[in-house]
Amino acid sequence: MKHWLCLSFFLFAAGHSGLSQWRAPKYSNEFLSIGAGARALGMAGAQSSCVSDVHASYWNPSGLANMEGKTQFSLMHASYFAGIANYDFASAATRIDSLSVLGFSWIRFAVDDIPDTRYLIENGQVDYRRISSFSSADNAFFFSYGRKIRKIPGLSLGGNLKIIYRKAGQFANAWGFGLDAGLLYKRKGWNLAVFAKDVSGTFNAWSYNTSEFETVFAQTGNAIPLNSVEITIPSWTLGVSHRFGFWKDRIGVFPSLDLVNTFDGERNTLLHSKLLSVDPRFGLEISFLRLISLRSGIGNLQRISDFDGGSQLNYQINFGLGLHWKALSLDYAISDLGDKSEALYSHIFSLKAAF
Q1: Which one, 81, 127, 308, 345, has least CB within 10 Å?
Q2: pLDDT score at 116
Q3: What are 23-43's pLDDT values in tens digits?
Q4: Residue 285, number of CB atoms within 10 A of its CB
Q5: Number of domains the chain contains
Q6: What does pTM read for this prediction?
């Protein structure tokens, strides 16, 4: 009975937060929407119901409970904007008993070595030795927990505590915190998932070191920013997947569908209204002897207006490849294959080790 009470509280809290915060800004902490793991990105992020390894801390922490082995580690790197920005993900998870798994993840998205030319000119003379550099970096730390519910076979619950640290050189920084909650139910080969991201609302408190730029801003007519609080509103992801086995299970076909639901007003998604916007993601993985996996996915479906008053459907197709040998998995993904969306393509690599 107590497990159903916990589940009811989870659903109520996620729904209440999603509806009560709809007036908050639409986009905040967007670096946390990129993804984690080349397998997931090759499948366009359709992972909430099929993730069952160390990457579950990002996609749905309840999936950690289904992790194979005692301990897993994962590393991922991707470059964006022709190498100007770097995105890195590192994660570890370990089983503490037959039912429970603890995880920790770190995400960093940064532009490094940005030239600081405020003091380039002194007394009318250009002095390149006065150029310094700084980094604009966004960091997130996930403390995750997933647990199987013994009295309800196939059901697992999980959650994240997130700590955010964002820094723009010596000019500004922000600390934030938030919570995620998820559940996963497996029955007769079917996987059903609910993942409430930022279920509590994720709060970032920004502070500005105005002494570093106040003089320059005043000379150029820019407004001096004030300390502020930024809120990331909740979203719900509903997921379903099923693995089909062929040729005595040597070949596996694993389709997956995620519906990302936001409640902050109308967005440019495939399905949208003034209250609810739905962003669908579809992924497919085909594996052979569990050694080689081919993946593809489609997501980021948007209607883009033309100059003639019409519109066209833009979408992003991803492709991926996975190689598995004993305890090691090497995964690769390329995003926006065929350049069917406004986003630029990127190469993503990740390595996972299981013990």
Answers
A1: 308
A2: 87
A3: 455 678 889 999 999 999 999
A4: 23
A5: 1
A6: 0.85
